[in-house]
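G.,

No rush on this.
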Amino acid sequence: MSIKTLAGLTPDGQIYYDEEMGFVEAMLPPGPWKTAHAPALLETEQGTLLCCWFAGSFEGGADINIVVSRLEKGSDVWTEPEYISNENDFSDQNPSLFNAPNGEIWAMYTSQLGRQPGKDNMQYTSVVKKQVSTDDGKTWSQPETVFPEEGTFARQPIQILSNGRWIFGNWICTDSEAGLSGDPSAFRISDDAGKTWRRVDMPASNGRVHPNVVELEDGHLIAFMRSREADFIYASDSYDFGDSWSQPYKTVLPNNNSSISAIKLRSGRIAITYNHSSAPASYTRKGAWPGLRCPVSVALSEDGGKTFPLIRHVERGEGFYGDENKGSNRQYEYPYIMQDKEGYIHVAYAYKTRIGVKWVKLKEEDIIGSVRGESTYNPTSGEVGK
């Protein structure tokens, strides 16, 4: 592999080293589509990196489908994306990738009716479908519906817990005045490796969505969630492998009503990637959409999600600040985080208001700041300081 020094990202999948940021990055080939959103990552058993997202004309359109790009082990260029799903009657969105224990790779995604006359949001028609690859993500089976309950939405992949249980975070969309802002979180649980599933609801979770499950210790789970009020990331605890959940409570991290992603690192720290921004205090209603989806940050917790003293911005965007200038910032949104077998951290997100997907690769130490002897400690703003 030969990594070039960054002179400016090119939309061809070429990996560059960014000397200022101290990590490698690439803009994945956008393909012929106008929009790219909600990326997800996976390292296959063969060491290939897969990045999938939904692409087409615009979110919610019937031409929106799931595509995937590959980074072969040892390569320095991501491949042109190819279709996973290719349907013309449904809007396929929010993909996730899962390494099943039997060697299969599952692509799970939501599938809803495309926009209807006078009806912009059709999420209440969504079901969850699955396609399977048995050749390292090169080809995929035909779609099958796994969760037929209409309104089911998802983003985090299936998680396998320490007792062998599978858990899949969902939220349930409705066609009502409280739709979106009032949607609750729920979980699909399987104790037979995905053959059968049952639903467990999270109490009082209306407007707390996109649950990301992390197992802190055997049976103790924490789910981190997006807030429709655009105030904070919320969390909920389970002490019985997901059979019951607490009411959601605020964490110290801000949220702007955009998706987040959380994992437990090999070090034991929790890592969350998100936009370090929230709505102004004047936004007290449910369903706030402040628009600012930047910076993309990674925050680390050493106490199970109570505090996040280590924060680094991995995407600063245009950097305009203040209410008058917020409209000058492009959107860098829906980040996804994973850790590979060698311990590297990978983050992917929709880039420059969805013209493509950007990927960055860095070490845990790059977030902590020990490489240059710096400290990233600032529990309030998240700004890097010495």
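When you get to it, here's the other one too:
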Amino acid sequence: MDPAWILLQTPLFGGLARGDVEELVPHLTEQRYDAGESVWIEGDRADVLLVIAEGMLKSHRLSRDGAEVIVAINAAVDATGEVGLFHRSRIRQVSVTAMAPTRCLLLRRQLLLDFLGRHPTALELMLEQIAGLTVRAAHSFTGLAFDDIRRRAARTLLALADEFGEPVAGGTRIRLELSQRTLAALVAASRENVNRALAPLVASGVISQQDGHFVVHDRDALGASADGL
């Protein structure tokens, strides 16, 4: 494993020179998580940034009755945890759980702050990342207010196909193992309602689910559903 190479693949450090990120390498620690293992829970102290070297994490919240809403999915090579690090409370605002066996590089908050102070480009990248998270949260919130479940589900599948898609015969396979329950958590709806919303798309051959993975067969038609057409 080359920690410097991993850092350079992430949005947070990708605009830097190798010599810059090598300053961080001696301060990184490695942590492994099994699938389903909690990384942190909402309300924990926020003191590290996670860089995902392998695997996948979900950021999520639970209601009092146990219903789950997935806020984000992060896969290798990406970073997460920056919101809690810079939140005034210094606590985690969401829970994070491994969706697959995952290996992370951990960087302590003060070491990150010192690095950002020495590297204005890295600071700008960090601010851009946090701004992007804010925009996505705003879009998600307005989507709940303005869009029906079918549009939200179609838009989510399109986004996942863009980020995690791989070409297969007849379409694009989303590499994530994505149950309908997980998809429901991503669009903040019940599994039953998501099933009903997707049924016409499955029946018409726009999408299918094969061995736990969604496959997009007709991207234009899925896009039309996402646009409410």
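DSSP finds nine helices and twelve strands in the chain. Residues 120-146 form the longest helix (27 residues).

Enjoy the weekend,
O.
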